[in-house]
Amino acid sequence: MKQILFISIIVLLALNGLAKSRELYMTTSDNVTLYVKVSGHGKPCVFIHGGPGSNSYYYEAMASSALIEKEVEMIYYDQRGCGRSSSPANGDYSLKRMEKDLEEIRIFLGYKKWMLMAHSFGGVIQTAYASDYPEQVMSLLYIHCTLNMNYSLQSHIDFGIQALGISDPKPYTDSSKPVGERLSAIHQQLTEKGIWYKLMYRNPWEKTYNDTIDNPIKPNNRDFANTVWNIRDYWADFTAASKLIKAPVLVMTGIKDYAIGPEHYKQFQFPDQKIVRYIGGHAPFQEEPQWYAEKIISFVQQLKN
Q: What pTM was computed for the model?
């Protein structure tokens, strides 16, 4: 009975959130059309999705988002070349351009300052933006984020070697081979064994559920997803940059999040950071929506006005 009541409350909150949301398309200074959705009320917070090359729907569709929107005005957007946004005619997917897109969204929506919340690969974009636009940052939330793509992809490989019981890891640890090639080989074997889900989720159902989340997005632009691997901007180690960011930071990390690396957060050097460890994988907002929302809201409420 309690479970039914909780689900009913979640549905009502979601419907209430929809009533207060607005969807729009914004044209950037280089004529890219970005999908933007604003929902909820409170301090403004922009969500920077992962992938790389996914879209914001996998996060905004979760029950936890409806709870958070009771206290926070969430801004969801699809990065250029992703989801419901268009691709740049000149192929500009540089990190600086991604930062500029965020800044143009902020100005377009009329916020003097805002919070930023990144998930996964979004941590790279968020850290770069906070480094270049510190005066516009109220606080930063890193939800299972990478600040070093090479480190996190190596975590995929290391996990695969262990989970598959590979006795001769040399073909997968040979740095003379492209990391993408080694990563693909590991992913293929994990998929064939039916255990790929263990990279990110606590059970196979959670992965199956997550795989259905993007289905309503048609067409789903994947241009950035196919391009990002060849752009050097995103392959730098941003952990060093973290020590220069003075804004309050919440770091949420999973003890079984092998997509990022369970110990990666220990390399973060934000001067004013709070660490929250999740007993699970890569998507606490999906697996434990109430717990997750409480942690986010608590952090936001403790911020100085």
A: 0.92
